[in-house]
Design a protein that fits this description.
The complex is a heterodimer of chains A (about 650) and B (about 240).
Chain A lengths: L2 H32 L6 H19 L2 H22 L9 H23 L15 E5 L2 E4 H23 L1 H11 L1 H6 L4 H23 L9 H16 L4 H21 L2 H4 L2 H12 L30 H19 L1 H8 L2 H26 L8 H20 L3 E3 L2 E3 L5 H23 L4 H20 L10 E2 L14 H24 L1 H18 L4 H27 L1 E2 L6 H14 L6 H19 L4 H14 L3 H7 L6
Antiparallel strand pairs in A: 1-2, 3-4, 5-6
Helix pairs in contact in A: 1-5, 1-8, 1-9, 1-10, 2-3, 2-4, 2-8, 2-9, 3-8, 4-24, 5-6, 9-10, 9-12, 9-18, 12-18, 14-15, 15-19, 15-21, 15-22, 15-23, 16-17, 16-21, 17-21, 19-21, 20-21, 22-23, 22-25
Chain B lengths: L5 E10 L2 E11 L4 E5 L6 H8 L5 E8 L2 E2 L5 H7 L1 E4 L11 H6 L14 H7 L1 H4 L11 H13 L5 E5 L7 H16 L3 E5 L3 H7 L2 E6 L2 E7 H5 L3 H7 L2
Parallel strand pairs in B: 3-8, 3-9, 6-7, 7-8
Antiparallel strand pairs in B: 1-2, 1-4, 4-5, 9-10
Classes of the chains: A mainly alpha (about 650), B alpha/beta (about 240).
């Protein structure tokens, strides 16, 4: 390692850091001031990149492209603020997450429709082509230097505006007390729109500069969004200064890590760093002395508590649930009768996803802990089954420190191990994530799941991005899981068992305490309850159920891949939970069924199904507050 | 009777399902200091919230400077000249004292002698010593002075104070009251909610008593003092 190379890599790190800052600054301002989580912020980055590339190819002018991209994204930002965000400022973070998740579907699919699925390449503007000699032996591309320069100028400019001008004072004041700012005669609505559009334009600025450096493709927004979320969590929500330093540090860690660390660790280095920061300072490094009003919002308005229903409604519920179960039990017969094996395949998937949703409902609906990384636990269970099978097939023992396992397809060995690994993962992630709450919790679970996703994507004997094939279903004595109906009945039985156990659990003293925590944790703590341990236990139990789902998923699909751990999977599970209705347990079956059947029928109809699904999701969240199960049961079930 | 600056006519308001205001009527004339009295939970703060656009009204009317402001958003009321010193002070903790004062400062009516930073500091010299401090670093009394100063900086025609001396040391309370006395002598209209009856009667011109969301008594200080039964009936606990 020579000094010039090191300096070059540090400059690269700085360059990626300032780009991250451009994304994170808009996101953190919107979060800090409006208490609004905008997952679609990455879409503005994508819109900026696509607009810039096409404008540049069309007009030949980088300047026109740059201005056009920023204006275009700002307009998109205004539209998003006006149509969606404005209705959600007072709603829970969960609603905001879901609506902006729907926006991602919409934006991604629109870009794919307009520009096609192929990545676009963007030329470096001729003026900025070439390199500069910084030191003897150190040539550095002029374009990257320009990116660093632009980023630093924007950071300085923003810092000036926010800290020194009246507009900045109003923005900061709005972050601590929106209502009071309005009483003083400031048009807060206008201020919000302005900040939103400005944040979008900044993201587009990063996007257009990313064009010549990386490829411009659909989905580019999500990767950088998650890194920006990590930046915000590390820097402290709402803190511009925190976003700046965290972005630089994370840019450096990411770039230098790839140089110095083994590849498996390098891809997850920033998440390890984030975990460390959260462990020491759950509020982030630069959380203001008087933090903005970013507090946990009870998502109680989404929760339907069954036992608060009248006796007759409870009877209705019980019969609905019973009928559903009977209908589900008849699926294999129906499938055989109709000679339609796909039906059974679809319903097996529904049953397995219902288990995932149930697991999430337990923490999100009852504990108020919105986990945006639940796919991680499912994936852990699935991967454990696949990995144990692989080791048996390849005759290579699996060495876990001092313990050496031969590998197995035996369900009696593999399944408990898989479920235990999912639980252990929930324990590890929960132990750190539960030190935080509210928004930080949502983001840190997301980031940890992403860490596992990258770990699974790293090339290894387990297939990396291609995933890992499983040669056969697990074996059980007396039961042949090779037979799909048998696997289906086993899955259905496990679902029924888990539903029953969860029902008992949430009605127990333990369940009462975690539900009380959702409503007011401080009060429960004042009663002498160590709430952290209760929430952690709830999280681990949820991990166990997710592990069961993972085991079944691996057996059903005979393939595990990083997609099973992806954040879009976590998002889907969350959407299913909302579809069904949080805090209903049984809604999980309804939610998973509705989602998967909808996905199936829409994708039969058009390949761009997400462009329909996204807006549907948005409308659903904006209008139906208590999910389908809640709708069926009608009013009166709310806490 | 002279044309009033602010007039509430049978105002009704509620929080969700629970009705708080049933029939609140009151007036504040130009240059008048009017007190709003009543026990806890009778609707005094709710009345203030309705007047400042923080709570929609269900019925009745609110007239300010001859215009109905029933459905006017908060920020326009601020621009029309209603300054609020809210319950709990609500200063901006993450702004310095100076920033708290200048953030929203404005002289929209083009007043010849507008409130400026210097004038507020002259009224509350204590704030001058704390200009660079964060709002969160101030004592309760200092925060209260800042809240009054901040409301003055938008050059209001009507100043509304909601429990402005609540929980303050007597010596600080006197500072606030002498400021109010001065503001009144300069011709500012003031609507004040306060528990300090002695000062209220001494400085205030007229008063309204609210009981269970209804105005049950209105009259000048003299009339209140000459009817000792009022205190027992509506104010004592």
């Amino acid at each position: 390692m020579t000094l010039p190379l090191l300096i070059e890599q540090m400059l690269n790190g700085l360059q990626s850091g300032v780009m991250l800052f451009l994304i994170a600054s808009g996101l953190t301002l919107v979060l800090g001031i409006m208490n609004f989580v905008n997952l679609a912020h990455g879409s503005f980055y994508m819109i900026g990149a696509f607009t810039a590339v096409s404008l540049q190819l069309w007009t030949g002018s980088f300047v026109v492209a740059a201005v056009g991209a920023c204006v275009c994204a700002a307009v998109a930002g205004l539209a998003v603020e006006y149509v969606c965000a404005r209705r959600l400022y007072a709603r829970s973070h969960l609603d905001q997450v879901l609506v902006t998740f729907g926006l991602i579907y919409l934006f991604n699919e629109s870009m794919r429709l307009i520009f096609g699925p192929q990545p676009l390449a963007s030329p470096i503007p001729p003026l900025l082509n070439g390199s500069v000699t910084l030191l003897p032996g150190l040539q550095y591309p002029l374009f990257r230097l320009t990116v660093i320069g632009v980023g630093l100028v924007v950071a300085a400019g923003m810092s000036f505006v926010v800290m020194r001008t009246r507009l900045g004072m109003l923005i900061r004041a709005g972050a601590s007390d929106r209502g009071m700012i309005a009483v003083l005669g400031v048009n807060i609505t206008w201020l919000y729109s302005l900040v939103f559009a400005f944040g979008a334009a900044l993201a587009a600025l990063a996007g257009l500069m990313s064009g010549p450096l990386y490829s411009v493709n659909v989905g580019m927004g999500e990767n950088i969004l998650i890194m920006a979320l990590v930046v915000i969590v590390v820097g402290g929500i709402g803190s511009l200064k925190g976003a700046f330093y965290a972005a630089i540090v994370i840019g450096l860690i990411d770039t230098l890590g790839r140089l110095f660390l083994p590849s498996a660790i390098a891809t997850i280095a920033i998440y390890i760093f984030m975990a460390g920061v959260l462990f020491v300072r759950p509020q982030g490094l630069f959380a203001a002395s008087a933090p903005p009003q970013v507090e946990a919002r009870d998502n109680g308005n989404r929760v339907t508590i069954l036992w608060s229903l009248s006796k007759s409604r409870q009877r209705v519920t019980a019969s609905v649930v019973g009928l559903c179960m009977i209908a589900l039990a008849l699926v294999p017969t129906l499938s055989a009768w109709l000679d339609d094996p796909f039906l059974l395949r679809l319903f097996l998937r529904i049953v397995i996803f219902a288990l995932m949703v149930l697991s999430l409902d337990l923490v999100a609906g009852f504990g108020g802990l919105v986990s945006f990384g639940h796919a991680a636990f499912v994936g852990t269970g699935a991967y454990a089954v696949a990995i144990l099978g692989w080791h048996l097939d390849h005759g290579e023992p699996l060495a876990l420190g001092p313990i050496v396992l031969a590998g197995t397809h035996d369900a009696l060995v593999a399944w408990p191990l898989a479920i235990a690994s999912a639980a252990a993962m929930a324990l590890a992630i929960g132990a750190i994530a539960l030190r935080t709450s509210g928004l930080y919790f949502i983001m840190s679970t997301l980031a940890f799941a992403q860490m596992l996703f990258y770990l699974a994507s790293t090339p290894s004997i387990y297939g990396g991005e291609d995933g890992l094939q499983i040669s056969q279903r697990s074996t059980l004595p007396f039961i042949d899981l090779g037979n799909r109906p048998t696997l289906y009945y086993l899955a259905l039985g496990l679902l029924a068992l888990c539903l029953l156990l969860c029902w008992r659990l949430v009605n127990s003293r333990f369940g009462m305490i975690v539900q009380a925590c959702r409503q007011n944790e401080r009060r429960v703590r004042a009663l002498g309850v160590r709430t952290y341990l209760y929430k952690l236990l709830l999280f681990v139990i949820s991990g166990v159920i997710a592990g069961v789902a993972g085991v079944l998923l691996a057996n059903a699909e005979l393939l595990v891949s990083p997609a099973d751990l992806s954040w879009t999977r976590s998002g889907s599970i969350l959407i299913m939970a909302i579809f069904g209705g949080l805090g209903t347990l049984f809604g999980s079956v309804v939610g998973a069924g509705t989602y998967l059947m909808l996905e199936f029928s829409l994708s039969e109809w058009t390949q761009h199904w997400q462009i329909v699904f996204g807006p549907m999701l948005i409308v659903f969240v904006l209008l139906a507050r208590r999910g389908l199960f809640g709708l069926v049961l009608g009013r009166g079930g709310s806490t | 009777m002279m044309e009033s600056l602010l007039r509430l006519e049978a105002v009704q308001a509620s929080y969700g399902q629970s009705r708080i205001l049933f029939d609140v009527s009151l007036t504040v004339g130009p240059g008048e200091m009017v007190g709003l009295l009543g026990r806890n939970g009778m609707g005094k703060t709710t009345t203030v919230r309705a007047v400042t656009g923080q709570l929609p009204t269900l019925g009745g009317d609110i007239i300010f400077k001859g215009r109905s402001i029933r459905s006017t958003p908060s920020h326009l009321l601020g621009r029309m000249g209603i300054g609020l010193v809210p319950e709990g002070r609500r200063i901006f903790p993450n702004l310095t004292v100076r920033e708290n004062l200048v953030a929203a400062a404005a002289n929209r009516s083009g007043r010849p002698d507008p409130w400026t930073l210097e004038r507020v500091l002259a009224l509350f010299p204590r704030l001058g010593e704390r200009l660079g401090n964060w709002g969160s670093q101030l004592s309760g009394g200092e925060q209260q002075m800042l809240a009054v100063g901040r409301a003055l900086m938008i050059n209001p025609d009507l100043l509304i104070l909601d429990e402005a001396t609540e929980g303050l040391a007597p010596i600080v309370r006197d500072v606030i009251w002498s400021a109010l006395r001065q503001l009144k002598s300069e011709g500012l209209s003031i609507l004040v909610i306060d528990r300090n009856l002695r000062q209220m009667m001494e400085v205030g011109d007229r008063h309204h008593i609210i009981e269970k969301g209804r105005t049950v008594w209105s009259g000048p200080s003299q009339a209140f003092l000459s009817e000792p039964s009022l205190k027992g009936r509506y104010l004592s606990v």
